[in-house]
C-alpha cells in the first residue's frame, strides 16, 4: 500500500514525491510513461559526449528564494544569464528589444531617454488591451510588431497574435537601456551537472519507488494507494469528456558540428523567413568544454507531445469545466502545467507543487509543522 501514487516524474510530480517522502514520511510510487525521469527537462550526453536537452532548452530563472534554495538541495548551481539575438533585416539584434536593438536596426545613436520617446512615438494608442497583438502594438508600434512578433507568434502558436490571450506577449519586456539579458530574475543559474542528475538526487529516497514506461490507467488497477497526484493532461484523466484541450508541440532537430562554436550566443530567434523559430547551442547553457558543439532547431507543430497550453478564451472555458469536475474527485490532486492547463515556467511549477504539498500536510498531517519535519527539519533545508 502506497500513501500516494504520483503520475508524472517531471518537476510537478518529483517535487511532490520528494516532499511527501522526506517531510511527511509517506510511501510514494511515482510513475511516468516515458523511459526516464525529469519530464521535459531531461538531459543526456549524446554520441559525441555533449550534454543536450532532449525536449529543447530549459533555462532556470526565478525570483523565489524558496524555490531556488529548495532545488539547491539537489544540485550545485552554475551561474548563467541567458542572452538571445534575433535575425531581423539581415542583422542579429538583441531580444528583448532594447536600446542597442533600436540603434542597430535604424542606424541611430539614441540614448535611453531618446529611445523611450522613439518607442512612444511608434506605439499605437489602444483603448483596451485584449490580445497579444494589442500588447505589442501598444508598446512598440506596427513596424517592430511585424519585424519581431507577428510571424514568430504565428509559427510558435499556429494562430495570429490577434487571436491569442494578452498574457503570451506580456511576458516579453521592452527595454530602453542596454540590458541584453533575456531574463532579469534575481536567481539565474543552471544545475551544474544537469537536470537529470538533479532529479536523480531529488528522487533518491527510500520512501520513493519509481516505475517508468508505465501507463497510469494500467497501474491504478494493479497498485494499492490512498491518494493520487496527477500531473498529466487533465482532459486525458477525464477521458476528454468535455473535448480535448489544445496544445502546441515542437519537432526538435539536433545537429552536431565539428567546431567549438556555432553561433554568437545561447539562442538565436528567427521570427520571419525560416520554418524554425530558434536555434539553441547547448554549450552556452551547460558551460561544457568540447571540441565539437551541438545545437537544436525548433519547429513548432500541432502534433506531438503536449508542451504549451494555448491561452485563448474558448480554451479557458473548456478547462474550467474540467477544473470543476476535478474538484469533485476525492483524494485526487492536479498540479503542473498539464494538470492545471497553465503556461508556467519551471520555477512556477515547483512553487505550485510546494504549495499543494503544504495544503495536503495542513489537511492530513497537522502534527507536521510546515517550518519543520516533525518540528525539527526546515521544509526547504
From TrEMBL:
<dbReference type="InterPro" id="IPR015899">
    <property type="entry name" value="UDP-GalPyranose_mutase_C"/>
</dbReference>
<dbReference type="GO" id="GO:0050660">
    <property type="term" value="F:flavin adenine dinucleotide binding"/>
</dbReference>
<dbReference type="Pfam" id="PF13450">
    <property type="entry name" value="NAD_binding_8"/>
</dbReference>
<dbReference type="GO" id="GO:0005829">
    <property type="term" value="C:cytosol"/>
</dbReference>
<dbReference type="InterPro" id="IPR004379">
    <property type="entry name" value="UDP-GALP_mutase"/>
</dbReference>
<dbReference type="Pfam" id="PF03275">
    <property type="entry name" value="GLF"/>
</dbReference>
<keyword id="KW-0285">Flavoprotein</keyword>
<dbReference type="GO" id="GO:0008767">
    <property type="term" value="F:UDP-galactopyranose mutase activity"/>
</dbReference>
<feature type="domain" description="UDP-galactopyranose mutase C-terminal">
    <location>
        <begin position="147"/>
        <end position="343"/>
    </location>
</feature>
<comment type="similarity">
    <text>Belongs to the UDP-galactopyranose/dTDP-fucopyranose mutase family.</text>
</comment>
<keyword id="KW-0413">Isomerase</keyword>
<protein>
    <submittedName>
        <fullName>UDP-galactopyranose mutase</fullName>
    </submittedName>
</protein>
<keyword id="KW-0274">FAD</keyword>
Amino acid at each position: 500500500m502506497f500513501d500516494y501514487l504520483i503520475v508524472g516524474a517531471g518537476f510537478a510530480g518529483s517535487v511532490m514525491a520528494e516532499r511527501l517522502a522526506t517531510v511527511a514520511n509517506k510511501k510514494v510510487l511515482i510513475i511516468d510513461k516515458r523511459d526516464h525521469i525529469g519530464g521535459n527537462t531531461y538531459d543526456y550526453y549524446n554520441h559525441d559526449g555533449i550534454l543536450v536537452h532532449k525536449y529543447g532548452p530549459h533555462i532556470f530563472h526565478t525570483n523565489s528564494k524558496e524555490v531556488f534554495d529548495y532545488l539547491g538541495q539537489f544540485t550545485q548551481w552554475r551561474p548563467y544569464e541567458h542572452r538571445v539575438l534575433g535575425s531581423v533585416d539581415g542583422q542579429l539584434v538583441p531580444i528583448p528589444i532594447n536600446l542597442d536593438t533600436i540603434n542597430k536596426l535604424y542606424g541611430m545613436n539614441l540614448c535611453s531617454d531618446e529611445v523611450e520617446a522613439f518607442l512612444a512615438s511608434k506605439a499605437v494608442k489602444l483603448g483596451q488591451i485584449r490580445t497579444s497583438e494589442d500588447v505589442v502594438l501598444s508598446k512598440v508600434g506596427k513596424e517592430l510588431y511585424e519585424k519581431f512578433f507577428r510571424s514568430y507568434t504565428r509559427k510558435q502558436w499556429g494562430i495570429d497574435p490577434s487571436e491569442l490571450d494578452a498574457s503570451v506577449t506580456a511576458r516579453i519586456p521592452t527595454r530602453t537601456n542596454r540590458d541584453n539579458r533575456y531574463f532579469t530574475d534575481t536567481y539565474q543559474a543552471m544545475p551544474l551537472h544537469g537536470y537529470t542528475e538533479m532529479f536523480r538526487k531529488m528522487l533518491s529516497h527510500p520512501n520513493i519507488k519509481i516505475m517508468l514506461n508505465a501507463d497510469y490507467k494500467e497501474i491504478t488497477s494493479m497498485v494499492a494507494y490512498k491518494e493520487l497526484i496527477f500531473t498529466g493532461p487533465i482532459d486525458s484523466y477525464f477521458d476528454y469528456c468535455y473535448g480535448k484541450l489544445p496544445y502546441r508541440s515542437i519537432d526538435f532537430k539536433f545537429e552536431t558540428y565539428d567546431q567549438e562554436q556555432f553561433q554568437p550566443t545561447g539562442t538565436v530567434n528567427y521570427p520571419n523567413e525560416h520554418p524554425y523559430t530558434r536555434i539553441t547551442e547547448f554549450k552556452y547553457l551547460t558551460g561544457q568544454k568540447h571540441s565539437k558543439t551541438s545545437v537544436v532547431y525548433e519547429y513548432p507543430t500541432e502534433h506531438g507531445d503536449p508542451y504549451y497550453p494555448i491561452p485563448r478564451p474558448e480554451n479557458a472555458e473548456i478547462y474550467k469545466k474540467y477544473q470543476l469536475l476535478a474538484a469533485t474527485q476525492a483524494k485526487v490532486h492536479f498540479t503542473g502545467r498539464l494538470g492545471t492547463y497553465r503556461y508556467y515556467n519551471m520555477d512556477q511549477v515547483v512553487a505550485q507543487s510546494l504549495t499543494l504539498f503544504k495544503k495536503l500536510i495542513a489537511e492530513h498531517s497537522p502534527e507536521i509543522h510546515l517550518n519543520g519535519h516533525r518540528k525539527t527539519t526546515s521544509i526547504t533545508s
